[in-house]
Structures are given as structure tokens and as C-alpha cells.
Amino acid sequence: MTLITLQCDISHISTIKDHLRLFWLFIPQIVYSQITLRLALNLLLNKVMVSEAHPDAE
Question: pLDDT digit string (tens) for 6-42?
Fold first, then answer.
């Protein structure tokens, strides 16, 4: 009984480690997408502000 419980606990810990490893692998991708999204929104807002300031620019 104790051996089975220990094996379950070890396998549970290993899955937690796997999840943490996956999480750390995805952090750069999440940061990169946030940065690109903000850059795209800034470019869009700048374009809107420029077109409002100079309606004949288009």
C-alpha cells in the first residue's frame, strides 16, 4: 500500500514538473505575442490619429 502511494506521489510530482517545464517554454511566446500585439495596436492608433489630424493625407 505504501509503495503504491509513493509511486502515485512520484508520478504526480513528475507531471507537475512536466507542466512547469511546458509553462516555462511558453512564457517567451506569450511575451512575444503581447509585445507584437501592443506594437500593432500602437501603429493602428498612430495611423488613426494622423488621419484625424490631417484628413487630406489619405
Answer: 445 555 667 888 888 888 888 988 999 999 999 999 9
Q: Are 41 and 35 in contact (CB under 8 A)?
A: no
Domain that holds residue 46: 26-50
Total domain count, the chain: 1
Q: What is the pTM of this model?
A: 0.52
| Cell 513528475 sits on residue | 14
51 within 8 A of 57, measured Cβ to Cβ: yes
CA distance 12 to 21: 14
Alpha helix stretches (DSSP H) within 1-58? 2-53
